[in-house]
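Journal club prep — side note

Before the paper discussion, L.F. wants everyone to see what a predicted structure for a comparable chain looks like in token form. Sequence:
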Amino acid sequence: MRSRRIKKQIWLNDEEEYIMKCKSQAVGMNASDYIRHLIVGYKPKEKPSEQFYEEIKNIRNIGNNINQIARIANAKGVIDVPHLRKEIDKLDEFIIDMKNKYLRPDKDE
């Protein structure tokens, strides 16, 4: 069942329609989603470039490699596992920060 039961119809002039279309496309949303975010006080951020997503993918690959190294090192007792774990945690934190910076909408004050 739909969580939104109330339909609202608005009238826009050509310029307003153009602005709404441009802004909603820039953030990767349809007009309805964009307006709902604005209503509850969020200003959606523009959708990041494809390069951003490639960088995230590369960082994840690096993290996976570090995890594999850590498992082998732990099994053989050759490397300082706590230190390596700390570095992995830093990488995870960096990924979260990147998502917050580029993807999450800002709350309007």
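L.F.'s comment for the group: The chain has a mean pLDDT of 87. Keep this in mind when we get to the figures.
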